[in-house]
Design goal:
38% of the residues lie in helices and 5% in strands. The protein has 148 residues and is mainly α. It has a three-stranded antiparallel beta sheet. Helix 2 crosses helix 3. It is globular. The N and C termini lie far apart (55 Å).
Length: 148
């Protein structure tokens, strides 16, 4: 019994150690450099809130949904519509492999998120953003971040 528990704990630690967490202000700097402040009317604070509520700033997060699709990366981009994970049918509107949105350079994640944002709904396409960020004061997300 103790051996099974030890193996389970070791497996859990291996999974946890694979997480790639980006610091809030480092993400703010990347988003600023990619000129996302004001993109489609959303501030850097909106983007930071989105990344936090979707993935807790975990670039490598993958989440399985009830419908069998998966959400990938820091913005939890869905495999049914936006990226191709080769597990099931995908519209792949972003024309990107889902594994690419897990890349720490964030280029594919940002480009796909911009495509999602450019359609109707903007950030409202993310349910968690609507529930936890929309209509709330968000300026505190930038506290202590120096972008210069």
């Amino acid at each position: 019994m103790a051996r099974v528990l030890l193996i389970s704990l070791a497996s859990y630690l291996l999974v946890v150690n694979r997480a790639f967490i980006i610091r809030r202000c480092d993400l703010a700097k990347v988003l600023h450099e990619d000129q996302l402040d004001g993109f489609e009317g959303y501030s850097l604070s909106d983007w930071l809130c989105l990344a936090f509520v979707e993935s807790n700033f975990n670039i490598s997060k993958v989440n399985e949904n009830a419908d069998g699709s998966f959400d990938y990366g820091i913005f939890q981009i869905n495999s049914h519509y936006w990226c191709n994970d080769y597990r099931s049918h995908s519209e792949n509107y972003c024309h990107v492999d889902c594994q690419d949105v897990l890349n720490p350079n964030l280029l594919s994640s940002i480009n796909c998120a911009k495509m999602i944002m450019s359609g109707s709904g903007g950030m409202k396409n993310w349910v968690r953003w609507r529930l936890h960020c929309a209509g709330r004061p968000l300026s505190y997300w930038m506290t202590g971040c120096h972008l210069g």
